[in-house]
């Protein structure tokens, strides 16, 4: 558990944001200057999509969580100033997405995140 000087990352807020499809709640977990990298079939490791700051991250979260799909937080591990979680998603037509995230934390907020995702094809 964190202290006032070192707040803990809020796993329950992450779960509520992901499963409740609440981009605003999720955005509250990010530092103002957070960096978010996305690696998938189209944005491969040598050229990931990189979002800088809460404004860019907010637009991505709004897009993802406005889609007709379900989201489930599968696992979340927090150790010191690092965290990792798995998220499974399913579109209304049955297409599934699995993502894995590695996170660096600063003052209990997400400072850096790398998300690797795979889609049904």
Automatic annotation (TrEMBL):
Protein known as: SnoaL-like domain-containing protein
Domain of life: Bacteria
Residues in SnoaL-like domain copies: 17-112
Organism: Streptomyces azureus
Record-linked Pfam families: SnoaL_2
């Amino acid at each position: 558990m964190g202290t006032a000087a070192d707040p803990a990352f809020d796993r329950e807020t992450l779960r509520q944001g992901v499963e409740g499809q609440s981009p605003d709640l999720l955005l509250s977990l990010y530092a103002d200057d957070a960096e978010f990298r996305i690696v998938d079939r189209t944005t491969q490791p040598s050229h990931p999509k990189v979002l800088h700051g809460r404004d860019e991250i907010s637009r991505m979260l709004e897009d993802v969580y406005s889609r007709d799909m379900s989201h489930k937080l599968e696992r979340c591990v927090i150790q010191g100033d690092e965290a990792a979680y798995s998220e499974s998603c399913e579109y209304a037509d049955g297409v599934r997405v699995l993502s894995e995230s590695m996170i660096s934390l600063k003052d209990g907020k997400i400072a850096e995140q790398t998300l690797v995702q795979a889609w049904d094809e």
